[in-house]
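Input record, target 12 of the design panel.
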């Protein structure tokens, strides 16, 4: 099933929902319309969907905020605008199912903030990362100052904003911008492969990884350990978990081996 919007190409492939940023003439720079269309697409996702892939139509993932549509705003309007982006990107981070970003070309500014909200990021060699806000007299407003330092560290993000430093796809894999680096043109296919795989996980396990794990990692150790015990107990008591463990013990599923 496919639906094409002026701003977003939406397609369902098996159990995977794909969302294609569809402004290739603007290097998929994001305006409010595109951000709100993303919000709509991520609202009430069908129970048949087990994962989401976000990608860019054309050569680029996203060159960030569309500065040509940046209007004069007073402080209150600017605050509300930033919080609108926060709500939409939170919908990605706290999505019911895993969200995977396929990164190509420009992953800049707000585009990098969008990618950071995803759970898995897959890049091909054309991808490059930058935060040019400092040279343009603005500041990140889509949650990047919260999410990106958790991936690459505060000092590296500060350097990017102060100096305009650009990181390549290879550097991005090393420093945590992405978890995967593919051959040329392979980001989307690898993202779909991973999305298909994770969509087959037990739903409660995916929920625990997406919702509980980040909170456990940020909690004080004793609180985190208690949360872990509670989540492990709930997951292991689920009927799906019991069935999968039984299948493994009956040798109906393969053992873990190196690829």
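The sequence produced for target 12 reads:
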């Amino acid at each position: 099933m496919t639906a094409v919007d002026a701003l977003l190409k939406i397609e369902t492939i098996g159990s995977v929902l794909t969302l294609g940023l569809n402004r290739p003439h603007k290097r998929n720079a994001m305006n409010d319309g595109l951000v709100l269309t993303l919000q709509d697409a991520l609202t009430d996702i069908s129970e048949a969907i087990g994962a989401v892939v976000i990608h860019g139509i054309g050569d680029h993932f996203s060159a960030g905020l569309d500065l040509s549509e940046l209007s004069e705003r007073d402080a209150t309007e600017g605050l509300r605008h930033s919080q609108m982006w926060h709500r939409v990107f939170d919908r990605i981070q706290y999505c019911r199912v895993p969200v995977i970003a396929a990164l190509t070309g420009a992953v800049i500014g707000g585009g990098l903030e969008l990618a950071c909200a995803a759970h898995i990021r897959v890049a091909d060699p054309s991808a490059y990362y930058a935060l040019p806000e400092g040279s343009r007299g603005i500041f990140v407003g889509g949650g990047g100052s919260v999410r990106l330092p958790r991936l690459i560290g505060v000092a590296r993000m500060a350097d990017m904003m102060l100096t305009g430093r650009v990181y390549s796809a290879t550097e991005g894999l090393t420093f945590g911008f992405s978890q995967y680096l593919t051959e040329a043109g392979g980001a989307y296919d690898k993202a779909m492969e991973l999305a298909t795989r994770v969509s087959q996980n037990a739903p409660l396990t995916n929920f625990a990884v997406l919702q509980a794990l980040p909170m456990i990692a940020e909690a004080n150790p004793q609180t985190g350990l208690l949360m872990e015990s509670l989540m492990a107990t709930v997951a292991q008591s689920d009927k799906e978990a019991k069935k999968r463990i039984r299948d493994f013990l009956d040798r109906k599923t393969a053992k873990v081996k190196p690829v």
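Residues 2-198 form a domain with the 2-enoyl-CoA Hydratase; Chain A, domain 1 fold (CATH 3.90.226.10).
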